[in-house]
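Fill in residues.
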């Protein structure tokens, strides 16, 4: 790997702009149904860049999510998520995240930013972890990151719900985000 950063004995990716490999990226979410069952879903249409700078706290992340790529294991639920009740994909086909700050501590970081869903922009904090790096069989440098955070979906105008006869709501307001991305150096973005 070319000139890596070493922070608190963690070897981090080299400075420069890295591209998210869409074939190896996922933005997942976990909510509760009836306040009990965990329902998992994901967006597979994820693109963007991570610009690593020196010093590291000047680094930037820009991610675009294709909201039509939502998949939760149920076609009926996915169609409902794409509808005006939730993501309104016809009018808001993309969600966007832009970082506003990052604090690095070894292989971990706290990233603040702004997430726009359905035309509404709100702050978001993610706990990120640098998982590691590798060189693929075609010689491309790759770096892998995980991140997670929790949001209240109603902050983004995603307010559809149903009250339950026994009390509570059909769909939880609190949603956990779970993100996995593999980055590749731009000159090798055509690898497998």
């Amino acid at each position: 790997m070319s000139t890596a950063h070493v922070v608190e004995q963690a070897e981090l990716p080299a400075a420069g702009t890295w591209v998210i490999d869409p074939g190896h990226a996922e933005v997942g979410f976990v909510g509760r149904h009836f306040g009990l069952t965990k329902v998992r879903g994901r967006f597979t249409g994820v693109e963007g860049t991570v610009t690593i700078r020196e010093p590291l706290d000047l680094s930037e992340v820009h991610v675009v999510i294709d909201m039509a790529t939502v998949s939760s294991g149920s076609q009926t639920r996915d169609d409902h998520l794409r509808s005006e009740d939730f993501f309104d994909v016809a009018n808001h086909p993309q969600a966007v995240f832009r970082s506003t700050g990052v604090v690095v501590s070894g292989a971990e970081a706290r990233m603040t930013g702004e997430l726009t869903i359905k035309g509404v922009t709100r702050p978001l904090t993610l706990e990120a972890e640098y998982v590691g790096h590798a060189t693929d069989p075609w010689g491309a440098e790759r770096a892998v990151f995980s991140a997670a955070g929790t949001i209240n979906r109603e902050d983004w105008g995603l307010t559809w719900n149903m009250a339950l006869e026994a009390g509570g709501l059909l769909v939880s307001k609190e949603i956990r985000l779970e993100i996995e991305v593999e980055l590749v150096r731009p000159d090798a973005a055509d690898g497998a």
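Residues 188-192 have pLDDT under 50 and may be disordered.
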